[in-house]
Amino acid sequence: MSEMSRDELLDVVHEVWEARDPVPAGLVERMQLVAATADTDFDLELMQLVERSLEPAGVRGVSTAYSLRFEYDGVHLLLRVDDDGEMARVDGWLTPPSPMTVRAIAMQGDRREWDVDVSDRGRFEFAGLTPGLLRLRLEPHGDSAKALGTPAFEI
Amino acid sequence: MEHSTTNRTPPGRPSRPRRSGEVWAHAASAFSRWADGDPAGLDDLVKLMTPVLWQVVRAHRLSVDLAEDVVQTTWLALVRSRDNVRDPVAVGAWLTTTARREAWRVSKLDGRDTPVEDEDLALMVPDAVSAESTAVDLDEQRSLWRAVDALPLRCRQLLRIVAFEHRPDYQQLAVELGMPVGSIGPTRGRCLAKLRAALAQAGEHDE
């Protein structure tokens, strides 16, 4: 048996992982969309995704709900994403609360947009959203502050 | 790359130059085109490097959802701080370093050390491969997978990162894998030796 070189061994490792854990279908296209959007959205500050957590399964044993926590310069946004039958819903909580309009933007398909206002307590909700890749744009009322945007997430 | 085609070739087809500098050179040129104002450069860069980022992030044993988040965070960071990459040649390393740092941060969050992939993937023996592959190919692939699986976890993680990255930064790797920086090189050597032995053994059984 001839000795395999370091590079040959690493080629084997490369090949094995590429075959058994390939990049998920559509991920490259989603990332191209995300990068191109961020590259042209100069008028907003991007919030950072800090945490994603799955909700524990409910009584029926299945839960598809999950939450996302975003942050930008002391502004925190918590989202709970759940399905609503065929459609999806997003409940949001902004701290500290401030008057804003939140726009949900579908990044694929019909690219629909939905607008809601944030309540005095920092709450907002979207129901009947089309499942797919979504992002939010938070537009402060008045023209003092810059708009905030979330990274894309799947609903 | 020419390989000897004697019948003493170990299991595993002759390696292809996939790990060679090619992908990094293409990434550098795509980055330059983007920096010069061509949006298609960014598209190409994402297409080239997303599969590499996927591998180095998944080496940290994150679930698919979390790994996708990390890959996205990495791309957004690049788009938002393009000027931090002074030399186009460094863009590949910038991306993989950023991705691994974020993967490590996410994997450290409470209750997050999800041992997803080992258990799940162990069951995923390659039984459906492309039509033209023969039974011999299939056996060969199975023995490759088994040889990699038989490695200790730390070896699997380290070799997976080294196999997809171009000269990873040992300092950061040491923090991520919880090892002293001085032991990364020797550990890598030992892991490669283990893999070499496992493959040689598999080869003997096959013959």
Topology:
The complex is a heterodimer of chains A (155) and B (207).
Chain A: H1 6-20, H2 27-40, E1 44-46, E2 48-54, E3 66-72, E4 75-84, E5 87-95, E6 100-106, E7 113-117, E8 123-129, E9 133-140, E10 147-149, E11 153-154
Parallel strand pairs in A: 1-10
Antiparallel strand pairs in A: 2-3, 3-4, 4-5, 5-8, 6-7, 6-9, 9-10, 9-11
Chain B: H1 22-35, H2 39-58, H3 64-80, H4 91-108, H5 116-122, H6 135-149, H7 153-164, H8 170-177, H9 184-206
Task: Spell out the key features of this protein.
A: 155 residues, alpha+beta, 2 helices, elongated, B: 207 residues, mainly alpha, 9 helices, disordered N terminus
Task: Describe the protein's architecture and organization.
The complex is a heterodimer of chains A (155) and B (207). Chain A has two helices and eleven strands, in the order ααβββββββββββ. Chain A has 155 residues and is an alpha+beta fold. Chain A has one domain. Chain A is elongated. Chain B is mainly alpha-helical. Chain B has nine helices and no strands. Chain B has helices spanning 22-35, 39-58, 64-80, 91-108, 116-122, 135-149, 153-164, 170-177, 184-206. Chain B starts with 21 loop residues before the first helix and ends with a helix. Residues 1-17 and 115-131 of chain B have low confidence and may be disordered.
* Structural class category of chain A: alpha+beta
Q: What is the H-and-E element order of chain A?
A: HHEEEEEEEEEEE
Low-confidence regions of chain A: none
- Report low-confidence residues of chain B grouped into runs of 5 or more: 1-17, 115-131
Give the helices and strands of chain B as they follow along the chain: HHHHHHHHH
- The general outline of chain A is elongated
Please outline the major beta sheet of chain A: 6 strands, mixed
Helix % of chain B is: 55-70%
Strand content of chain A is 35-45%
As a whole number of angstroms, the C-alpha radius of gyration of chain B is 19 Å
Q: Using DSSP, what is the number of strands of chain B?
A: 0
Tell me about the largest β-sheet of chain B: none
Number of helices of chain B: 9
Indicate the structural class of chain B: mainly alpha
Percent of residues in helices of chain A comes to 10-25%
Query: What would you call the shape of chain B?
Result: globular
